[in-house]
Specification:
The chain has 7 helices and no strands. The chain is an all-alpha fold.
């Protein structure tokens, strides 16, 4: 079943069960898919890859917001709990990321292949890894591991 249809089914079920938090997060994701669909220059179709890209971007947005609400402490606790719920919901749809050991092996292999020995060239490595492993790794994690390896 296509991811967009899965989202529609989840929304219908959440509305029938009066599960407001789930309905809210699905509506937000559907809204973001609609924004992509109507964006200037968009000519493709809404396929699973686009839906996963939208959910991944939304997850990243939620992670940034969660950090801010956690800094606020008690005043932001209720909203932080909602954001954690939304993050967990998004994780269900996204492919599992690489573990630390696999990421290190990938970065080492790409560093050797691209013959990168200088930390100034980490951007090139990140671009290369993200092309082939989008959705499986986070660019910030790739950068962190690559810089550690290049330090020595």
């Amino acid at each position: 079943m296509a991811l967009e249809q899965q989202l529609n089914d989840t929304l219908t079920k959440a509305m029938k069960e009066k599960d407001a938090p789930t309905a809210d997060v699905v509506r937000m994701i559907k809204s973001k898919i609609g924004e992509r669909r109507t964006a200037k220059g968009f000519t493709g179709t809404v396929d699973d890859a686009l839906v996963l890209d939208v959910i991944g971007a939304y997850r990243k947005q939620l992670q940034k917001a969660l950090v801010e609400f956690e800094k606020v402490g008690e005043r932001g606790a209720a909203h932080a709990a909602q954001l954690r719920f939304e993050l967990e919901f998004c994780e269900r749809y996204l492919p599992k990321g690489m573990d630390e050991m696999a990421l290190r092996a990938l970065v080492r292999e790409r560093l050797d292949t691209l013959k990168i020995a200088d930390a100034k060239q980490v951007g090139r490595l990140i671009g290369d890894v993200m092309k082939t492993h989008k959705g499986q790794v986070d660019a910030a994690e790739v950068k962190r591991v690559a810089e550690e390896m290049l330090k020595g």
